[in-house]
Amino acid sequence: MYSSKVDAMTVSTTFTTQDMRAAILHHLTYTMGKDADHATTYDWRMALSFAVRDRIVDGWFASTRKSYEAGAKRVYYLSMEFLIGRLLQDGLVNLRLLDDACEALTALGLDPWQVISNEPDAALGNGGLGRLAACFLESLSSLGVPAHGYGIRYEHGLFRQSFVDGRQVELPETWLQQHHAWEFERPEARYRIGFGGDARDAGWDPAEAVIAAAYDTPIVGWQGRWANTLRLWAAKPVEAFDLDSFNRGDFVGAATPEAMARTISRVLYPDDTTEIGKELRLKQEYFFTAASLADILRRFEMEHGDLRKLPEKVAIQLNDTHPAIAGPELVRLLHDDNGIPFDEAMDLARSTLGYTNHTLLPEALERWSDHLFGRLLPRHLEIIDRIDQAHRATYPSSSVTIREPGVVKMGELSFVMAHRVNGVSALHTELMKSTVFKELNALHPDRIVNETNGVTPRRWLLSSNPRLASLITERIGEDWVGDLEQLSRLEEHVGDAGFLSAYAEAKRANKADLAAWIEAEHGIALDPAMMFDVQIKRLHEYKRQHLNILEAIALWQAIRAAPDADWTPRVKIFAGKAAPGYHFAKDIIRLINDVAEVVNADPVTRDKLKIVFLPNYNVTLAERLIPASDLSEQISTAGKEASGTGNMKFALNGALTIGTLDGANVEIRERVGEENFFLFGMTADEVVARRKIKDHAAKAIAVDPRLAAALAAVRDGTFCAEEPDRYAHIVQNLSGPDYFLVSSDFTDYWRAQREVDAAYRDADGWTRMAARNTVRSGWFSSDRTIRGYMADVWGAEPVI
Ligand SMILES: *Cc1c(COP(=O)(O)O)cnc(C)c1O
Predict the structure, then answer these.
(1) How far apart are CA 260 and CA 591, in angstroms?
(2) Is the CB of residue 141 below 6 angstroms from any atom belonging to ligand 1?
(3) In-domain check, residue 713
(4) Ligand 1: distance of its center to the CA of 232 in Å?
(5) Of all atoms in ligand 1, which is nearest to the CA of residue 649?
(6) Range of the domain at 44
(7) Alpha helical stretches, state H, 570-695
(8) Atom number, ligand 1, closest to the C-alpha of residue 622
């Protein structure tokens, strides 16, 4: 029966639809305490989740056992964010139980998709960085590498976004109001995390403390052969309750310790591109890093003992500088707590740590005031000073500093305390070497390596695009799921008319599904024959959603001027959240919504151009949109997007990219072929040169009447008659400083878009280009990325 212990390898073959039905009913009855007549969709979804979780747990234990037996090196991925999204469908797909589950639910009189989509989307991250961490965990499990992800169990993930009169409104995210089906609380795994107090005699006497309490979620890999653990820390009070206050009648005061402690894991900071410098953020960073390191050392000492062997058995990866405190904390644990000499402790820590840099934006590089830092982490500040002194003593002629008057520089600290520092695309890594870490790279020429990002093909193709996945499997078998480069075996099919028409049909059907959903949810009717032109990502000036909407305005004006010309109908779909304090980005959202209202109501252009901004972008929405996209907008100012991973998901699913030579776009274009990619815009070098030209924006506007007219329409209130000046500041920016060079890249963007129009009108030609994108995107699997880290950074190997 379903509860019997089965070998992890045989999960999928021994479990039938009948077993699934029995398991669901068992959990509905005995876990949810409901009978079938009174169960809600929530009850059914939970029952199904527990049934699936049971199937994962045996393999999970088997993985733990094999890791201990092998004494293998373990990988620890420390990340402030894990944007995991929904886990039920992922689990069903990886265990290959999706069909059984759907049949079982249907037999029980339920709509399977209604049940599966009842799950909240776990938004414990802002965007690309957090989603990368989630893809990495899945790949580590699919490859059978002993690994743990460590992060924070935010009570409230990224805010939910809605629009009121076109404006973004933020609502609290409440995923934990329901029981989280996948996690196991671990009351035995608790650590006391100190803050404040005094540092003295190479020791530390914290003034306050909170408890970090572990919650484990199993992350199952492809075919259920391996499962790793995502361990998230929740902050709890050392003492839940102040009884003295309570007895004095101060009931609020009595609950204060609890409220204070819990604040640390209460909410995710909703901004991933500006350094915040807030005390609570530093507390969050130290809280999860210290708890994770304590846990890692506890496991290491149990397995191996001698801390001097740490780098042989443990690899710790820092996802950006958010866990950079790991360097000094590890030195503190080794030196202060375990008596290892300081220099040796520093070497051990460095050999264990790797650091991934995610951005070159200066405003995103973390720096802390040493006043705040010293108040919260006095001993760490001393240790950082010593690390800084040691580095300067070793390289006396270098001007690199980790400390400057008043500040602690986390980027430099991370670099100095890691044996490998990696960028996330070839271009980004080169720019890192020539800009932010130029001097450090000269001192440590072997330290910087490149590991171009990737995405997991299980979620981003097999699960989210079943039509295309089946077509691929029909042609080349299903080994591609675990080895995505096998997609290249489809190359010969791209000339085959039968394959191409099936490929086109899969895309058409995906578009029809999306159109039906948009009509049902948002009341906007779309013709699936239109080109679906999609830009979905965080709102940021460097990502240039405003370039896209300006082009839409110019197109609208052009269609109105010649309505009978042969236009290629398209819908521009946007989605993305703006950081709540980023007013310019929020105004871009409002502008897009205002333009949509005017353009969509225009009878002259109505069947040729539509604009839709879908609210609340998250992983689930991405899974819905990407398989139905024709055109992928990857139009950042060159040199600003470190890699991008959205670009990879689109190419894999057969959307053609219109893009700049930025981040991984460069590598996507190299692989899919330049004839299957719409390139425009300045290069990173040209961007730097262009900014030096006086009045570059005004000059660009002066030579492009279309751009001038589009800006004039924004300026004169065409889209906001009730408040004509609403967007004056945007026009002013794009005509003046225009740091992100929207105006200077507009003309070439318009040109490339018209090439897109022409290409789309040749339906067969378009399908061939789209299919080539799929066939040649196998390299962008996060399995490949993880293999790169194992070889270049971690020195770890799979156990299966
Ligand atoms: C992939 C993904 C991202 C990253 O998108 P980019 O276009 O690379 O910025 C952000 N958010 C979600 C929900 C994603 O799935």
Answers:
(1) 40
(2) no
(3) no
(4) 22
(5) 1
(6) 1-70+86-120
(7) 583-600, 619-625, 646-652, 665-672, 684-691
(8) 15
Catalytic annotation, pick one of 356, 645, 718, 785: 645
d(CA 421, CA 79): 15
**Spatial separation of the C-alpha atoms in residues 341 and 451, rounded to whole Å:** 33
User: What are the residues whose beta carbons fall under 8 Å from the beta carbon of 773, sequence distance 6 or more?
Assistant: 651, 652, 654, 655, 656, 657, 672, 676
Instruction: Kindly state whether residue 721 falls inside one of the protein's structural domains.
Output: no
| Residues 568 and 448 reside in one and the same domain | no
Residue count (the chain): 800
- 176 and 162 in one domain? yes
CATH code of the domain in which 467 resides? 3.40.50.2000
Would you say residue 718 lies in a domain? no
Environment class of residue 692 by beta-carbon count within 10 Å: exposed (0-12), middle (13-18) or buried (19+)?
exposed
644 and 774 fall within a common domain: yes
Give 324-345 pLDDT, tens digit per residue. 999 999 999 999 999 999 999 9
572 falls in which pLDDT band (50, 70, 90)?
very high
Residues 324, 368: Cα–Cα separation, whole Å? 12
Question: Are residues 462 and 513 both part of a single domain?
Answer: yes
Q: What is the pLDDT of residue 8?
A: 41
The answer to whether 157 touches 123, Cβ cutoff 8 Å, is yes
Find the catalytic residue in 34, 160, 537, 776: 537
Longest Cα–Cα distance in the chain: 83
**Number of domains the chain is built from:** 3
CA angle 500/506/512 to nearest 5° reads 135
Q: Are 539 and 585 in contact (CB under 8 A)?
A: yes
- Is residue 273, in this structure, part of any structural domain at all? yes
Could you tell me if 409 and 554 lie in one domain? Answer: no
pTM score, whole prediction: 0.97
* 363 vs 393, residue with greater confidence: 393
Is 645 assigned a catalytic role?
A: yes
Contact between 638 and 684 (Cβ < 8 Å): yes
DSSP string, 552-570: HHHHHHHHHHSTTS----E
Q: Is the pLDDT of residue 9 over 50?
A: no
Distance, in Å, from the CA atom of 641 to the CA atom of 563, rounded to the nearest integer, reads 37
Sign of CA dihedral 712, 715, 720, 724: negative
